[in-house]
Write a structure and sequence with these properties.
The protein contains four helices and five strands. The protein is α+β, with helices and mostly antiparallel strands.
Length: about 140
């Protein structure tokens, strides 16, 4: 079973409610655990940036579900590749809130002070997420 890594960015829509965040994260964790998918999510109240790692079939299925979720729009695939090992294997879905992201980290990978994942390069998107998770491993 080949492993893949997928990173996408999206914008929240008017159908997004702040109260959706907790159930969304918990649902993702449960679903990912069942399907042996790991990853992380960054959300700054405007943009979502998510990494999924697992079997090609499962990751593609989850991405297709996300792309049909009316709470997301302008979904853009930032990174997709086969991988030899997971970078986020310790988490079903590690969540890093924007309050835990330093402006320096954001600026290093996007050139601006506020998170905009659409400004990141393919390689920059994975490096950004790896560093964001590494510096916030204790958060949920």
């Amino acid at each position: 079973m080949p492993l893949v890594r997928l990173i996408y960015a999206s914008k929240k829509t008017d159908q997004w409610a702040e109260s959706d965040l907790g159930p969304l994260i918990e649902g993702a964790r449960n679903n990912n655990r069942r399907h042996m998918v790991t990853g992380c999510l960054v959300f700054n109240r405007k943009y979502f940036m998510q990494c999924l790692e697992g079997s090609r079939a499962q990751v593609n299925q989850i991405y297709n579900l996300v792309s049909q979720d009316p709470r997301h729009c302008d979904i853009e695939l930032l990174y997709y590749d086969y991988i030899d090992q997971r970078d986020f294997g310790d988490w079903d879905m590690h969540y890093v809130p924007d309050s835990k992201l330093s402006k320096e980290l954001i600026k290093r990978f996007s050139g601006v002070d506020d998170l905009d994942p659409y400004l990141m390069t393919r390689k920059g998107s994975i490096e950004f997420l790896k560093q964001a998770v590494a510096t916030n491993a204790g958060t949920l």
